[in-house]
């Protein structure tokens, strides 16, 4: 399918799914509300989006209960973040949460960036590069990094924890690990989400759904600091990166 062209004058919005529990990070508050450098991860993520001159609206998708929505609204009102921010309740899966964010977008938004709250340290240059590539006509744009480990494909295993049989070694020169924000022509993304939900399919990222509709997804360079805080060690790394940034900038 060919590239689409967002209308001149349309707005770019960021949707930030932040409704996950953070099971892999371990017990505690929902992951997006856990502190990084004394500030909730979500606030870092909102600031990263709002710093981009392309982004004029941020839709935060909070854990799906009234208390969490109110808490997130208060948190963002108290922070020095920002562009215009809306907070909506999320769903059981990341996919449902992103869909809730899309449903809240006003009519004048034609480009959407979807960004994990769990990637609090994405540099603004990466956000700008994704937004610019969508404005230039690509229907779906994803920041990506080369894969540095060798990757094996395994066959169906036996008992959990038992050694797994290797089927083969994948050519890693053709593999990329994708990050967020992923940027989209709004209509292409909304249609892909609707179709995926109707078919009862799932996808681990938004670009995967748009790919299945036949749109050409393109990659731009990602950034090593845009990593996802998933497990406890990731939080240790994020604290170190933030401390280095603060030492360098003097803030
Ligand atoms: N029902 C969900 C699940 C995830 N997310 C968001 O999607 C992003 C990526 O998800 P992930 O890193 O997997 O976060 P969690 O689901 O919180 O982590 P875990 O799977 O370890 O519980 C996060 O910003 C998370 O808050 C969401 O908005 N709604
Ligand atoms: C969207 C994503 O961050 C791209 O790498 C990733 O697929 C999210 O996966 P998760 O298991 O929901 O964290």
UniProtKB/TrEMBL annotation:
Pathway the protein takes part in: Isoprenoid biosynthesis; isopentenyl diphosphate biosynthesis via DXP pathway; isopentenyl diphosphate from 1-deoxy-D-xylulose 5-phosphate: step 2/6
Superkingdom, natural source: Bacteria
Enzyme class: transferase
Site (Transition state stabilizer): 24, 31
Chain positions of site Positions MEP for the nucleophilic attack: 172, 228
Alphabetical list of CDD domains matching this protein: CDP-ME_synthetase
Keywords, sorted A to Z: Isoprene biosynthesis, Nucleotidyltransferase, Transferase
EC number: 2.7.7.60
TM region(s), chain numbering: none
Keyword Transferase in record: yes
GO terms of molecular function: 2-C-methyl-D-erythritol 4-phosphate cytidylyltransferase activity
Family affiliation: Belongs to the IspD/TarI cytidylyltransferase family. IspD subfamily.
NCBIfam families xref list: ispD
Biological role stated in the UniProt entry: Catalyzes the formation of 4-diphosphocytidyl-2-C-methyl-D-erythritol from CTP and 2-C-methyl-D-erythritol 4-phosphate (MEP).
Name of this protein: 2-C-methyl-D-erythritol 4-phosphate cytidylyltransferase
Organism field: Streptomyces coryli
